Amino acid sequence: MNTKRTWKTVESGPRDYQEALHPVVRKNYGKWHYHEMLKPGVLKHVAENGDILFTVRAGTPRQDSVDLIRRICDIADKYADGYLRFTVRNNVEFMTSDETNVELLIKELTAIGLPVGGAGPCVSAIAHTQGWLHCDIPATDASGVVKALMDSLIDDFKSLRMPSKVRLSTSCCAINCGGQVDIAIVVKHTRPPRINHEILGNICEMPKVVARCPVAAIRPEVVNDKPSLIVDNDKCMYCGACFGACPAMEINHPEHSKFAIWVGGKNSNARSKPSVMSLVAHNLPNNPPRWPEVTQVVGQILAAFKKEGRPWERMGEWIARVGWKHFFEATGLVFDKDMIDSYRHARTTFNQSAHLRF
User: Fold this and answer.
1) Smallest Cα–Cα separation from 302: which of 121, 117, 90?
2) What is the rounded (10 degree) CA torsion for 208, 210, 216, 219?
3) Which residues neighbour 102 within 8 Å (Cβ) at sequence distance 6 or greater?
4) Are 242 and 210 in contact (CB under 8 A)?
5) Would you say the pTM of this structure is higher than 0.85?
6) Going by C-beta distance under 8 Å and a sequence separation of 6 or more, which residues neighbour residue 59?
7) Quick one: which of 291, 191, 274 has its CA closest to 237?
8) Dmax over Cα atoms in the chain, in whole Å?
9) What's the mean per-residue pLDDT of the chain?
10) Could you tell me which of 205, 189, 197, 188 has the C-alpha nearest to residue 245?
11) Separation of first and last alpha carbons in the chain
12) What angle do CA 115, 158, 128 make, to 5 degrees?
């Protein structure tokens, strides 16, 4: 038996990402001439030297089983030279230089329940946090909300009938891991944490809890002759960060943890500078397993955007063009005083982009 070692251990992090690129991508890296959208979820890239690469994109559940991953890999071996990649929105993409493989990929992906689409002027897959499966501070199941929403929006995922791409996210807590997107569904707690002073001193590292509060609303205190913590309710913004560090400061509640909808966020510099989201609906019930009120509000916003948006105009750009008054009229949502943004800290820091200003 040959026991000679034939590999070298590398302790400097992950492997070079270029090793995972399709050979045509690696050959033409940074040398692409143009690309076009052939149909929903199917792209054609043409390199400067004439090489052609087809990409087929399909949505996945995100929390994929081992069996599903194996089936996806089998499809990649058959039609994509063994290469695939997952996008940041949990879509899976297969690349092939053989045009005859495109329809075969679509057929096999559809057969295992993965819809082809999510690229171009459509509703892309929803980026979301872990929810009850993994996260330590969730007030809802982000994955469940995504399932309910995508059941309603699946036709807009598989077609090209939106003015531009629409990116959505859901977050299982108020910290919003989803980031800035066109439409964000975020949990909104409506009261400070409930503190169990009897056990707090025994199970929580109090300096860690104090440090975790982003608005310095928590301070040490002696309660019933025991070391504990108290919350300044005037400072607390109900984010729930303290609960992740200390289970004795529970903020989640089936009635008082609600959903809020934010719109108009954008990370890119394309056409307009990046923008933060604005609140347009709140106090929506957190009622699994289908969350019908959340689905209805998102549907109203998308219907108005689909009707009035201009080609390649992102949602925030549409709102900037028509104005907030018209946005609320077109969507049928109700504006109230709690939606007025009076937060001024670091405003100049947030207002940054790569655009030149004179």
Assistant:
1) 121
2) -170
3) 38, 42, 54, 56, 96
4) no
5) yes
6) 90, 91, 92, 114, 115, 117, 118, 125, 150, 157
7) 191
8) 78
9) 90
10) 205
11) 72
12) 70
